[in-house]
Amino acid sequence: MLNILLQIGGLLVLIAGLATLPLPLPIGLVLIVVGLSLLATSSQRVRNMIRSWRKRNTRFNETMRNSEQNSPNWIKSAIHETDPDGEFNESES
């Protein structure tokens, strides 16, 4: 049940981030990172997909790395798990 709530919440926050992306304030990027972090904590498939995006898109990867430095621990953990160059071992999760 918690996984379903995390996925729904993450999807809603991600959609809100995409909707606010064109605004002059950077709130859209923050919401996208939070939404992806919520989704990544609940699904291995999403973690693999984000890792793949980060490998292909260096700007997205840098945005995620910059966000990791200023985020709460639960978001840092989710971002670190999706780092394509990180030393995260899937057996640790």
Describe this structure in words.
With 93 residues, the chain is mostly helical. The protein has one domain. It has helices spanning 2-20, 27-42, 44-56, 58-69, 73-81. The longest helix is centred in the N-terminal third of the chain and has 19 residues, at 2-20. The chain is globular and about 35 Å long. The protein starts with a helix and ends in a 12-residue tail after the last helix. The model is unreliable at 89-93 (pLDDT under 50).
Structural key phrases:
single chain; 93 residues; globular
Question: What is the residue-mean pLDDT, rounded to a whole number?
Answer: 84
Helix content: over 70%
Name the overall outline.
Answer: globular
Largest sheet data: none
Describe the SSE topology.
Layout: H1 2-20, H2 27-42, H3 44-56, H4 58-69, H5 73-81
Helix pairs in contact: 1-2, 2-3, 2-5, 3-4, 4-5
Briefly say what this structure is.
By secondary structure, the chain is mainly alpha-helical. The protein is built from five helices and no strands. The protein has one domain.
